[in-house]
Records
---
Amino acid sequence: MKKLFTLAAAVLASMAMSADVIFSYTLTAAGEEGATYDAVGGTAKCLKPMGSGGSNEITIGTQTFYKFNSSSAWDFTLADAATFAEGDVVSITAACGTSAKSGKGVTLNGIALTGDFPASEANTLVYTVQAGDAIDGQTTIQVKRIDSDIKFGTISVERENVAPSTDPVESAEISGEAACMVGGSLELTCNAPKATSYQWSMNGAEIEGATAKKYTFAPAAAGEYSFTCAASNEYNLSPVVAAAHVVSVVDPADACGLLIKAVLNGGTSATMSGVIGGTFDTNLGSGKYKLDKGKYIGIQLAAGTFMAGDEVTITMSTAGQNYPCLFADKDRNNLLFLATETSDTLEYVITLPAEATGLTTLYLSRDGDDATYKWNPTVSSISVSRSCEASSNADIAKVTVNGFEVEESAGNKFEYTLSANYAEPTVSIALTLAHPKAHIKYDLSNPYEMTTPSAGTTSGQAFIIVAEDGTEKTYTVLVTKSATLSNNWFLSELSIDGYTLDPAFTPENNSYTITKPYGAANPEESAIHATTQDPNATIDHITINPTNILIMVVAEDGVAQNGYLIEIEEAAAKKDLLEATFSNGVHGYIAEGNINVPYLEGEEEPTFVSARFWNADGEPTAEMVEGNLVVTGIDAQQASYTITYVPLTPMETSYDEITFSEVPSYIYSVYGFDAGKGVKFSKDVEEASNHRISEGKNNGESPIKKTAASNAAIEIGLSQEHANFVAIESNGNSGDAGFIKLQLSEDIPTGINNAQEAVKTVKVIRNGQLFIEKNGVLYNAQGARL
C-alpha cells in the first residue's frame, strides 16, 4: 500500500504541474476586415487587416508573420463565454524583419508586451494574467501593435491543469473604493484565485443575480453598506467568504470641500477630480482653451446638485475685457452670474446665487460682441467648492428704498429722506443679503412695504438677518419725510465713456475739461453718466455744444439750480515720426527732437529722401527747412527735428573677433510706438550675460536681406572693390533680434556687388552708398530711379 500511495502522489504532482492549451490561433493570411475564423478553444476576429506582401510579411522557417498596420487589431475570444483568469499564460510569437529591434511588441487589452527581436528571428513574448488586470475575467483578448515594425504570427493561452481535490479556492478578498455618492456607482471585485463561482451579499443578505467576479454598486440612499463575497470552485466543500468590505455612502447634498474640478488638457478634454466629480462638456476646438464668441466650457456633477453659496473658481489668463459669465445651460438662457467690472487677476471666485440650487451643470460662455457679455480669456481650470461648515454671514449687501440705494450709517442703520411732495401711502424697502443661504427672520416680505411717515417725522423698520448657522444680526431702516423741499443740486457721480475728466470729479467742482482725438466727434448724450446726490433733484437737461458740454441740475425745490461745464479740447493731429530715410540708405536715429544720421567718413553728407509716420492722422509731410527736418500735420501744426550727421570711421581690415560689450553700439532705427511712452528706440546694449547689438532684423528696404535664427550665424558677402557700409537695422514695427559678435572672414566666392535676384537685379555699393542696377538702369536704395 505504501508503494501504491507513493505512485498516486507522484501522478497527482505531475498533474498539478502540467498545463492545458485553452486557446490557440496562428495567422495563415493577413485576414479580412470583420471576418471571424475558427481557433483552438474559441474564435479569432480580424477587426482591421494586417499588411501583407513585400516588406509587410516575413517567413521564418515554415511560419509567415504579417505586419500590423496603424489600425490593425485582432480579437481572440474563448468559446462558450468562458473567461480568462488569473494565472493564465498568454504567449505571442512575433518577428520584426531583417534588422534587429528591441523594446517593441504588442498590447493585450492595452497591457504592453515588449521584448528583443533578433534580426530575421521569431521571438515569443509571454504574459501571466494578474488578478483584476485588463484580461482577468474577460472573454476576449484584443491584440494591437506598439510600433510599426512588429509582425505577428501566433497567440496561445495555457492554463494550469490542477489535480482533483488538491486545489480548491483557499482565500478571497474584495477590492474597490470605500466611499460613494448617492446617485453614483462604484465597482467591487472579488479577488479569489481559481474561483469559478461567486455570490455577493450586502449587510448579511444575498444579492440576487450578483454571481460574477465583479459587482457594480449604485446606492440609492446614504449610509454604510457591508459586502461579502463567497467564492469557490468545484473542489470546494463550502464557499470561501471574503472579509467584509464597507462602503460609506454620502448624500451629495451633505458633501463638502472640493465638489468638482476640471483642469483643461486641451479644448476637448479635461482631468476631473473632486469628492463628487463629474464630466466635462465643451465645444472648444481641439487643443484650444480660449472662450471666443459662441464657445462654452461646462462641468456636470456625477451625482447630486449645486447649491446656493457654492463657490466657483475660474483660473484663467487675461485677454481683453474679462467679464466672467456663468450660465445654467450651454445655450445661455439662464444667467447665474455676470461680473460688472473687468478682472486683471488670474483667478475669479463666484458665489452661486439661490437660482443655482438644483442645477447639475454650469457653463462658462460669452454671447455676442456686446461689452456686457464680451469675455474671451484663456481658461485653464474651473472648480466648485462647498464650505464644510455652515456660514455665519448675516450681512446685508444692499438696501434700496423706492429703488434708490441707501448707504449704511453707524450702528447698522440705513437712513433715507423722502421728499415733502411724496404722496404714496407706502414706501418700498428691498434688501439684498450678502449670503444666499441667509434669510430674513419672521418671514417679513422682501421688498417690505412700510407706511409712509407724516411730514417732518421719521419711521423705522427693524430687520433681523439669520445666517445659515443661526447667527443673527439686526439692521434698522429709517425713513424720514421732509417737512420742506431740498435745495441740494449737487451731483454724486459724473463720467463720460472713453474720457477722463480733468481734474478728477468732486461734487463741489463744476468745471472740467476733456480732450478728444483729432477729428473725432463730440461724445453723445448716451455716453454721459450723471447721478444727483439728492434722489429728488433732477437733471434738467444736457446740452452738447461744439466746444463744451453743459449739465444743468435742478434741486427738489425747483428754485436752486446750477450747471456742470465740461470744456472739450481737441488733440493735435498725430504725426509721430517713425522713420527718416537718407540718400545713403540709412534711417536716422530719432530722439528728443534730433535725428542722428551716420555716414562714411570722407564721403559727402547724405541728403534727406523720405519719412514714414506711426498711425498718423491723414498724410503728414516732411521737408528740410534751413538744415532741419520739419514735419507738418494735417492740422498745420509742426514739429522740427535737428539733423546731426555722424561720420563713421571705416574699420581696419582684421580677422579678429569683435564682441559687443558695455560700450554703446548705436542702432539708427525706431522699432515701435507706445501711446503712453511715444516712440521707442532700439536698446544700446543688453545685460552682461547677453551683450549684443539689438534690433538686428532687416527693415525690408535694404538691397540684401539677412536674418538669423536664435544663436545662429549669418554671412554677408562684401565687395573688395569698394568701401562697405553694413547697417544692422530694425524692421521698423517689431522684432527684437540682435548680434553678439562680428567677424571678418577670408574671401568668399560672391560679394554684395554680385548678389542677384531672380529678376537679374545687381546690388552694389559705390562711394559708401547702396544702389540697385536692374536691366542697366540705376536705382537708389529706396527704389527711386536715378
Note: Residues 414 and 477 are 5 Å apart (CA to CA).
---
Amino acid sequence: MSSDPVSPQDRLAGLSREQRALLFEQIRRRTEKERAAAPPAGIPRRPPGHEPLPLSLAQERLWFLDRMQPGNPAFNMGSALRLRGWLDTRALERALNEIVHRHEAMRTSFREVDGSAVQWIAPSLWIPLPLIDLASLPETAREPAAGRITQVLLAASFDLVIGPLVRTSLLRLAPDLHLFLLDVHHIVTDGWSAGVMNRELIALYEAFAAGEPSPLPPLPIQYGDFARWQREWLRGETLEAQLSYWRGKLGGALAPLDLPTDRPRPPFQTFRGGSLPLSIPAATASALRRLSQEARASLFMTLLAAFQVLLSRLSGQDDIVVGSPVAGRHRAETEPLIGFFLNNLALRTDLAGNPSFRELLLQVRETTLGAFAHQDIPFEALLVELKPERDLSRTPIFQVFFNMLNLPPERGRLPALEIEAGPGAEPESKFDLTLYATELEEEIFLLLVYNADLFEAPRMTELLRQYQAVLAAVAGEPGLRVEDLSLVTPEAVAILPDPARPLPVEGSEAVHQRFLARARRHPDRPAAADIHGVWTWGDLDAASGRLAKRLLAAGLGPAEPVAVWAYRAAPLAAALLGVLRAGAAFVVLDPAYPPARLAALLSRVRPRAWVEIPGAGPIPAEVESALAGVPRSRVDGPGLPVDAGAPCVTVHPDAPAWIAFTSGSTGEPKGVVGSHRPLSHFLDWHERTFGLGEGDRFSLLSGLAHDPLLRDIFTPLWVGGELRVPVPERMGEPGWLAGWFAREGITVTHLTPAMARLLAMGETEPLTTLRLVCSGGDALTSDDVARLRRTAPRARLVNFYGATETPQAMGWKSVEAAERRIPLGRGIDGVDLLVLGRSGRPAGIGELGEISIRTPYLALGYLDDPAGTAERFVPA
C-alpha cells in the first residue's frame, strides 16, 4: 500500500459542506498572511531543448537516500491487479506503453552532471510485458506460486542511473485469470499517480482492445516542467515565509520518539516490514464522526489525536511529532500527471499537563490547519533549514507516520474483464510505524505497517487493540484526560496480574529456628567452608548459640539492632544466626565501604550491640568512635561443644530481622528494615521451585552489605545444603573464580551480571557441576546469557528481580537461549509485579510505567522515615 495521500481535502472527510467551507476559509486566511508572493498564474512548459532538468526537491532526497543505499527496495511502489475474464495481452502492453509515452516521468532516469543530479528523459522507451505461464501447474499450486513470484518481482532493485524505473509482468493462472504486476520507483511516482495510472490504463486498454485510438487528451505540462518551476518559484520571500512558520513549529529540541522495541535498534535504519489489519466497528466509527463534527474537526484530526495519545503513553513522552502526507497537487496542471509530488508534513503535538481529549483535539485541529496552509515547502527543504541531529538508525524529525486514505477500491469492469486488487509484496517500512486509516461506508479500516526488525507481530497486534480502545473511550467520553485512558485491553486482562485478587499471607518458621532443627538432626555434616576450614552444622549451632547468649546477657532487647563487622568467611553465618537467635536484628558493616559512610550509618542505626568475626581486620577509628560504649561480642571458632541451653528466641513473623541500606544512587541511602516473614517465604519458594536440597553446594558471592547476602547465606541453611566461601582477595584474578567453582563442586550460585563476567574470565573448562545460576542486581544482557551458557552449559539460568525494599527476589524468569532481551518475568508465589502508569492505574502491554510490587511480603519500611515509608509502602 502506498504511503501517499490524495489531497488535503480528504483530510476533512466526515464534515458537512458548511463545516468544510469554514475550515478552508480559515486555511485561506492563514495562507494570505504568510505568502509574500503568490505563485505564478500557471506552470509554464519549458522551452524545447532546455536540458538538463533539475530534480524536484522531493526527488533530491530520494536520490540522496539511494546513493547511500543503492537499489533499496523500500522505495518500490508495486501493485498487483487480478484480471478475470478474456484478456487482450497486446492491448494491455500497448496501453501500458502509451502511458510511458505520455508521461515523461515514466521515461526518466537520473545522472550526475558537474556534481549535481539531473533528470535524463529517454526520447522513447518500450516496456515489455513478459508472460509467466502458471496454468500448467496443478490448480492448488498456482496461487502459492504466484504469491512467491510476486514477492520476488516486486522487491527487486531499481538502478536510478541506468533505468528504466518501471517494469511489469503478467502471470497467467488460467486462460481467464491473470495477475498483472506493475512496479515503479517512488522517485517518479506517488499514490495519486497510481490512481492516474489505473484510470489511464483502463481507458487505453478499452480503446485499443476495440481498435480505437487513444481517448486521452494531451497533458498540459510534464513533471520536468514542475520541477523547474518549483526551483524558480520557491525561493526568496516566498521561501522565507514558509520557513518562518516551520521554524516556529519545529524549532528547539526535537527528541526522537523512543517507543519501547522488542529488538535492539540496529545502528543503521532498516526497512523490513510487517503489516496487520484491524476494523473499527461501525458504532465507534459513527461516534467518532459525531465527535469530529462537534469539534469542527475532520475525522483525520480525531484519529490523529487518538494516535498521538497512544504514542505518548507508550513512549512516556509529551512532545509527539507524527508525519503525514499531502498530495502536493494544489495546482490544476499537476492533477493529471504521473510524478513524485508527495510532500510530508510534520504535525507536532504537546500532551504535557494531562489535557482532556477534547482539548487535545482542538490543538491538533489548529496544528493541522496551520500545516495545510504552509504545505508548499517540501519536507526536504525543511531538513536543510532545520539541520536536525542525524541518526542513521531512524528518520529525521518524525519516526511514525499517519496516513488517512480516501482512495477508491482498485476494482472495476471492462468489457469481458473484471479487475480487482491482487496480492502485493510484503510492505517495506519506511518508518518505525505507519498507520493507514481508510473510511469505509460504515467502519474504519486500519492497516499498521511496522518495522519488523524492531517490533514483533504480537506486540503490534496489541498496539492496534490499544488504539481501538482509545478510540472507543474518547468516542464515548471525550472529556476524559489523556492519563485516564486505559490501554489495558480485554485480551491483556487475561495476561496481566489482577490487582484486585486477594494475596494470602502465610506464616512460616523463622530461619534461625529452621536452622536449629536441621543442625540438631545432623550436627556432624559440613555446613560452611572457607580457606581456613570447614564448619559443621554443630559448629554453627555452638558458635551462634554462644553469641546469642552473650548478647542477651549484655541486655539486648527484642528486635533491637546489632552491628556485625563483617568478613567474607564461614563464621559470618554464625554471627547472623547468633543475632537472630537472640531475637534481634542485624546490620552488616562491610569493611570495603569508606569509614565515614559506615560511621554515618551507625549513627542512624544506633546499635545496642556489635559483633566482630575472626579475620575481619582492624576497625577504622571513625567506626570505633561510632561504636564507643556499645557492648562488643566476638564469634567463637569451630570445634566447641553445643550449649544445649543456648537461646533460640521465638519471634513474631513480622518482627524486625535485619537492616540494610540502599545504594544511595538517587540520593541519601535509606535504611530498610526487614522482617522474618518475607525472608522465610522466599527461602521456602526458592527450595520448592528449584528442588534445592542437601546435595547442593552454594557460593557466597554477594556484597556483604547488600540484602542478597541473606539469600546466599540462608538458602543452604534452609534447605540443608553446604555454603562455600571463596577467598576474597583472589576473586578478581582471571580464571581463579571458575577454578574455585570446579574444585568446590558448586551446584547453585547467585551472582550479578558483573560477577558472571568475572566468572567467565580466563581460559577455563566448562563448569559441569553447576545446575542453577540465578542472576540479579543489574540488567542481564543477551551477551551475559551467551557467556553463562558457555561457562555453565548444563545450568538452568534464572533472572531475578528485586530491591532492598522487597527482600530477596520478587520476580523471576527462566531465560531461554533465543531471548534477545531478558524480561523481569513474573512474581514469585504471593507476589504481583504491576506496571503502573502516571495515573497510578495499571499500564497496558508495552506502555511505559513504574514497577509496583504488590505483596504482603515486603520490608517493614524505612528506618526512622515514616513519610518515606508512607510514600513507597502503600497498602494494597
Note: The chain is about 35% helix and 20% strand.
---
Amino acid sequence: MSGRIHAWATLAVLASLATPATATVWPSSHQRVAEALDSADLTERRRAASMLSTLPPAMARGLAVKALRDGDADVRIHGARAAARLGVDNAGDEVVAWLQERDARLRLAACELIEASPTPGSVQALARILSDAKPEVREAAAAAMGASGLPETVGPLLGHLDDNAAEVRLEVVRALGRLGDDRAVVPLVSKLQDQEEAVRREAARALGRLGDERAASTLMLALQDKSLAVRVQALDSLGELRAESAVAAIAAVLTSDAATGADGPARTAALRALGRIASPQAIRLLIDALASEGAALDADATPVRKALALAGAPAVAALEAALAGSPTRRLASALALALADLSATSARPAIERASRRGQVDLVSGLTALGRLGDPAALPFVLEHLDEPDPSVRRTVVEVASRLLEPGTQDGRAVDVVKARVLDPTTSLGERIALCHLLGRTGSDRAQAVLLSLVGARPDALRIAALDALGELGRPGEAVDRALLGAFDDPSSRVRMAAATALGRVGQDAAAEQLLHRLDASAAQDRPALGVALSAALGRSQRPDLAQKVEAALPTVSGPSRDALLEGLGRMATPEALAALERASKSADPDDRRKVAEALAGVAGSESLLLQLSEDPDPTVRANASWALGAVGSKAAVPRLAALVEDLDVAVAGNAATGLGRAVGREAKDDPKAKATLCKALDDFRAYVRVGALNGLRFGGFSLGGEGDCAAPEVLRLLRRDGAFRVRLAAAQLLRTAPTAPGAKPGFDRALWRCASEDRDASVARLCQAPPPPPPKERDEVTVYVVPDGKTDPRARAPFALVLADGALRLGVADRRGALYEDAAPRGEIRLAVPAALVR
C-alpha cells in the first residue's frame, strides 16, 4: 500500500487481528501485589513477585525494588527481572552485593539487572566477577559492561579476551566493539586468529565498528579465513573502514573461483565493500563488474548496481564517462540503469543519445529515463510509441505515465496517443494503458478523447476511460453528464468507476444528483455513491446544498449518514458547520463520532471539538482528540493534556500526538505540555508511549538540555521497550529533534547501537540513516478497514492507522467500516495491529 494517495482515493487495507492479546493486570491489582509482597507466606511472595512485570510501570517500580530486598532468592530474582524490564533508576546499586552470593542464579540476575540499569559503581563491581567460576555469569558480566558505555570497563575486558570459554570470549569481543574505544583495536586484531569461528567473526565485526584503519591489514589477511562467515564479515568491516589500501585484496575476492561460484556471499560482500570505499579504483572495479552483470531491470537482482548506489556521488562522473566512451551494448545498458539508481539527472541527455544510437537497448534506456523522473525526457519517450515491439510500447506508456505529474497540464502526449487509443485494432490492454496515460496529462484536449470512450465496449475499456476522466481533473458539465449516465450501466464495476470519478471531479449539480440517488439506489451501490457524494460536496460552497444535505440526514440509513456527515465536513462552510453542530447533539454515538472526525479540517470548529472531547463515549473522544490536534489553538492545549491521561488507549494516544501538534503550531516550548508528554512516556500502554514520542517530535521540543525530562526516557525506550513501534518512534524522535550540543554524542551513540543491534529491521534502518523529510503535500483519503480473514469492511472495527509522517491514529471505523483523513501526509499509509491487541 505504498505510493501517492490523492484527494479522491479510497484505500482498503488489511488490519491484522492475528496477534494474540497479552493480559494486563489493571491498576486495581497493585495493592493486592503490594500486600502479598509483605506476606509471611513465601509462596504468596513468590507469586506476587512473578506478577510485577504485568503491572503498569509507574506502579511496579517501587514494588520491584521492594522485591529486590526480600530474603528469598526466588523473590529477588523475580524482582530483578521486573526491575530490568521496567527500567528502575539506579537499580544496579541494589544488587552489587549479589555479585558475592553463592547462588549463581543471583549473580547472573545481578549482571542482567546492571546491564539494564547501570550505575558507575555497579558496573565497576562487575570487573570482579569476570573471573567467576560459572561461564554464564562471566558472559553476562561482559555483556553488562559492554552495554554500560563506560570507558573504565575497557581495561578489565581486555584482560579477559583469552577466557577459556568460547562464549565468554565472544561476549568480551562484542562488548569491546560496543564500547567503541580505540584501545581495543590492537588486542582485538589478535582475536582474528581465535580457534572459534564465532569469535573471529565478531572480532572482524568489532574492528569495523571501531573505525580504526590500523586493523585493515589484518582484516585483509582474514579474507583467507577458512570460514565463509568470517570472510564476509571481514569484507564488510573493510568497507566500514573505507580502507582504500584494501581495494586490491577485495578485487582478488571478486576474481576468485570461489567467490563467483558457491561462495557467492563473499562476492556480494566484496562489491558492497568497494561501494563503501568509493575510491576511483574501487569504482572502476565496480564498473568493470557491471559488464558481467548486465542490464537487469529488477534492481533487487543487481548487486553491482547496489554497490554503486552505496558509492553515491563519486560514482556518477565515472559512470557518465564510461557511457560516453565505447562500452558494449550490455555494459552501456547497465550503465544507464546504474545512473538512474543514483538519480543522476545530469545523465539524461547522455542516456537519450546512447539509446537513440542503439548503444543502450531501448527498454533499458526508457526504463532508466523513467526512474530519473525528469519530465524533459517525455518527448524522447513519446517518439517510440509506434515501435513495432510491444514490450517497447508497453515501456513507453509506463514511463510516460511516470513522467506526467497529475494536477499539472501537459498535453504533449495527447496528439501522439489519440490515434492509437481510438484505433480498434490496437490491443485492449494497450488501449487501457493509453487511457490512463491520457488521464495523467491534465489536458483539456485529452478530455474529449476520453469522453468519446465512455460508451466504448468492452467494459474494461469503459472503466479505464471513466477512471482517466477522474484522474484528469478537468471538471465540467459534459463530464458530469457522462459520469452520471454511467450510473445506469448494468455493470456494478462501471457504476463504481463512475462514482469514484465523480468524487474526483463532480460539481454542485452532480452532488445534487448523487444526493437524490443515495436513498433510492440499490444497497450495493450506496457505498460508492457515498464516497462520490462526500468528495463532491468538498468542492461546493453553496449554502442551500448544505441545507439539503442536512435535510436528507433523517431519511438515510447509518452508513449513508456517515457519508453525508463527512461531506458536510469537507464543505467547511458556515452552514455546513452549523449542520454538524446540530448533528453533534444526536443521541447516537455513531453520529457524534463521525462529526468529530469530519471537523478535523474545519476552521472554527475548535469550540465544538472541545465539547465533543468530553463526550461519555470514548470513541467520540478519540476522534475529537485527533481532530483537536489538527485544528486546535493554544486554548486546546490544556484539554489535550488532560486527555493524555484518559483511561481509553485510543483517546490518550491520539491526545498525546494532538498535544504535540497543537503546541508545534500555536504554543512553542510549552513546559507544561512537555511535562505531560514526558509522563506519558512511562505509560503502561505501548500506543500511548508512541503518541507521546510523536507528540514530542511534532511539538518541536528539544532534547538533552539541562533538566530535560524526556531524553533519558527516550533513550531507555529505544534500547529496551518491547514494542517495536515504540522503539521506531523513539528512533524517529532522536533522528529529527533539536538537541543540546552536549547531548548529541550520546544520542548518536544510542542510534549507532540501535542500528547494529535492534532485532527489528525497520527500527535498525531508521537508526542507521535519517528518515526522509516529512511530506509537504496533503491529501484527503478514505480508508476502509478490512479485518484479517475478511473480504469486506467491518463497521466499528478498531484500527491503528500509521500515516506517512509516522503519526499513529487510533479509533474505530464508522458505520461503513471506513475512516476519513482530511489532510493525510502524502505517501504510504498502513494499518497496524489495533490497540486492544498491543500491550
Note: Residues 625 and 655 are 5 Å apart (CA to CA).
